[in-house]
Amino acid sequence: MLGALLLVAGCAGPPVQEMSDARQAISVARDAGAAEHAAGELSAAVEHLESAERYLNQRRYENARRDALQAKEEALNALHRSESSDEETP
Asked: Is the pTM of this model over 0.90?
């Protein structure tokens, strides 16, 4: 019971780690050339991060967490696509 309570309490606060992870993933994707090789995925990641920031400012933490996780996923997709493009280039 105590473990479940701690888990719920941990989820109720701001998604600090998720926001940080999303920002870092976007930065790495940009550095890998995602703006050129995976612009759509990178743009989606940035849009999700901006949405997460708006939710965070409204203290809607679950929505912020969801969008931050989506931003990270999109950024990682952009990174992988950029890396694949680099491998295909002679």
From this structure: no
Spatial distance between the Cα atoms of 84 and 25, rounded to a whole number of angstroms: 17
Q: CA–CA separation, 89 vs 27, rounded Å?
A: 22
The residue among 23, 21, 26, 9 whose CA lies nearest residue 61 is 9
Q: Environment class of residue 11 by beta-carbon count within 10 Å: exposed (0-12), middle (13-18) or buried (19+)?
A: exposed
Euclidean distance between CA atoms 70 and 22, whole angstroms: 8
Percent of the chain exceeding pLDDT 90 equals 79
Give Cα 24 distance to the centre of its chain. 8
Closest CA to 15 of 69, 58, 51: 69
Distance separating alpha carbons of residues 82 and 43, to the nearest angstrom: 14
40, two tokens:
């759509």
Q: What token pair was written down for 21?
A: 């992870």
